[in-house]
């Protein structure tokens, strides 16, 4: 545990003052500003504005994760071709440290985003249809449903480089947009990049008591199970893979 703490502390020191940390603060703030300006000139219902905001966040999240993972792995490659990670006496812990850092940054960015948006609806637009708890729950739903993608992109970045991670993120965003339609019914549960979108849509329907929420409840339950099991499985398998990884990377 002490080694993990020291690894996390060391990794955090690496990102302090770096673009990776700054973008997790600036991008959410800019997103809140853009949506506030846009919504101030639209006549949507308040609930529709909230739904649209979270759907857009879920849509863009995979692409941003691809960029973040690329920056993380490319930084390690530039610092010595992963030698610090490979030479660690506890390589699995070193990998988990990297993962936890980007997860904490991602969670922080998500909380900044939703809290800022909630404050904007309340104090600027004066039309917040939900309590603060709604936004916190939505933030954690989006975050935890994306942990699988974080791990996957970290693997891709380590193995094939940052460009591959970014390319995969763009593809996942496009797939998420496609599966947000009826075309994704019954298929989205097998596409991790669409979990966040579908979960947040169903959460919103549940909160506004939309009767359509009950139509695909069994599909939602299966999606939640696959999300939990898949996330645990990919973290476990990745730790085993990283303990034997030799540092090859295609550039």
TrEMBL record:
InterPro entries referenced in this protein's UniProt entry, alphabetically: ABC-transptr_permeasesu (IPR022294)
UniProt keyword terms in alphabetical order: Membrane, Transmembrane, Transmembrane helix
Residue stretches in coiled coil: none
Segments crossing the lipid bilayer: 20-40, 52-72, 93-126, 132-152, 164-183, 220-243
Organism: Clostridium neuense
Record-linked CDD domains: ABC-2_lan_permease_MutG
UniProt cross-references to NCBIfam families, sorted A to Z: lanti_perm_MutG (TIGR03733)
Name of the protein in question: Lantibiotic immunity ABC transporter MutG family permease subunit
Domain of life: Bacteria
Entry-linked Pfam families: ABC2_membrane_4
